[in-house]
């Protein structure tokens, strides 16, 4: 450069607002972001898409919450329906429960009257059942056992040959028995009552009072007792035989008897019973000591002679004591 070369003019710095483009800005991370119209439009579009996504997720969450609420309300409505149905059933059962309470109270009162009519020395024989209906059934089954001996009949129907044996129970007898036992006369089993009355006046037979039928002996010499279940109505002192269903029924020598004993208590089908299968038991009336005692053709009863199918139930030790020693004679 010579001294004559003119000096180059200085280039002025661009100023804001003079129409010149600004230099790109730098972000805080040091990266440069250039906001062109296209970039701004793309950013706006992305923000809108993200906002739409969030709106959709929010709408889905709100809808799910509403469905849950509707399901809860529906479930509550079902519970209400079930509750109302249960209340309806309870309301229908209330009259029935009231009737059962009345029947139970009446049965308990009748049982108390019947027990009060039993001789005091025999009341301890009555079982203490919690169920009044079960107790009533037991009292029915043992009614003849607790009956008092009636006066001899004077109406000319006592029997033939000096052997009084009433053919039927008179209305007065049935009424007196019903009043004593606390039952209505129409519920008295007249056939069973006639049988019981006839036994009480026979020369030879068995004791019918539950308190008088008792196993005897002590230690190794006491009567052998088996526990069993009755299969039919039975009176204390009757001869019973084991049947194929495992229950004990009154034995009759009209058919073959293989295994028998003496019932210590009376009862009905399904009731528990003690059975003397060997040894001494107080049960006979006016027996001849030393003689064989047989099962008779009449179910449950004793005989001094063999029945159709001979079966020895034991031997008379005294007039009242039977030594049970079962011996089937006829096996077919």
Please give a structural write-up.
The protein has helices at residues 37-117, 132-141, 171-181, 190-200; strands spanning 25-26, 32-33, 159-160, 163-164, 205-206, 214-215, 224-229, 239-242, 248-250, 260-263, 272-282, 284-285, 292-295, 302-303, 311-316, 321-328. The chain is of the alpha+beta class and 332 residues long. The chain has a domain at 204-332. The strands form 4 sheets. Strands 6, 7, 8, 9, 10, 11, 13, 14, 15 and 16 form a 10-stranded antiparallel sheet that branches. A hairpin with an 8-residue loop joins β10 and β11. 23% of the residues are buried. Mean pLDDT is 76; it is low at 1-5, 14-25 and 149-166.
Identify the overall geometry.
elongated
**Unreliable stretches covering 5 or more consecutive residues:** 1-5, 14-25, 149-166
**Biggest pleated sheet:** 10 strands, antiparallel
Strand percent estimate = 15-25%
Secondary structure: elements and pairs:
Elements: E1 25-26, E2 32-33, H1 37-117, H2 132-141, E3 159-160, E4 163-164, H3 171-181, H4 190-200, E5 205-206, E6 214-215, E7 224-229, E8 239-242, E9 248-250, E10 260-263, E11 272-282, E12 284-285, E13 292-295, E14 302-303, E15 311-316, E16 321-328
Antiparallel strand pairs: 1-2, 3-4, 5-12, 6-11, 7-11, 8-9, 8-10, 10-11, 11-16, 13-14, 13-15, 15-16
Helix pairs in contact: 1-2
């Amino acid at each position: 450069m010579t001294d004559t070369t003119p000096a180059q003019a200085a280039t002025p710095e661009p100023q804001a607002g003079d129409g010149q483009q600004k230099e790109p800005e730098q972000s805080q991370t040091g990266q440069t972001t250039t906001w062109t119209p296209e970039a701004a439009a793309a950013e706006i579009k992305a923000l809108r898409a993200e906002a739409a996504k969030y709106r959709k997720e929010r709408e889905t969450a709100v809808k799910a919450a509403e469905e849950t609420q509707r399901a809860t309300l529906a479930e509550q409505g079902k519970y209400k329906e079930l509750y109302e149905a249960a209340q309806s059933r309870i309301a229908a059962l209330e009259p029935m429960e009231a009737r059962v309470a009345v029947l139970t109270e009446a049965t308990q009162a009748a049982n108390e009257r019947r027990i009060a009519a039993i001789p005091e020395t025999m009341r301890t024989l009555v079982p203490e059942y919690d169920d009044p209906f079960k107790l009533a059934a037991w009292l029915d089954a043992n009614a003849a056992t607790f009956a008092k001996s009636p006066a001899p009949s004077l109406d000319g129907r006592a029997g033939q040959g000096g052997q009084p044996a009433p053919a039927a129970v008179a209305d007065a007898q049935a009424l007196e028995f019903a009043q004593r036992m606390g039952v209505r006369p129409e519920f008295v089993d007249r056939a069973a009552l006639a049988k019981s009355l006839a036994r009480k006046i026979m020369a030879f037979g068995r004791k019918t009072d539950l308190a008088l039928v008792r196993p005897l002996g002590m230690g190794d010499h006491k009567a052998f007792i088996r526990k069993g279940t009755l299969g039919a109505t039975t009176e204390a002192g009757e001869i019973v035989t084991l049947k194929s269903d495992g229950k004990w029924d009154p034995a009759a020598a009209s058919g073959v008897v293989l295994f028998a004993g003496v019932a210590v208590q009376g009862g009905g089908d399904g009731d528990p019973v003690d059975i003397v299968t060997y040894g001494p038991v107080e049960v006979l009336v006016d027996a001849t000591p030393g003689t064989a005692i047989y099962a008779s053709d009449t179910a449950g009863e004793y005989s001094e002679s063999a029945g159709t199918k001979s079966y020895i139930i034991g031997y008379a030790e005294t007039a009242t004591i039977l030594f049970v020693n079962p011996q089937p004679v006829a096996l077919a």
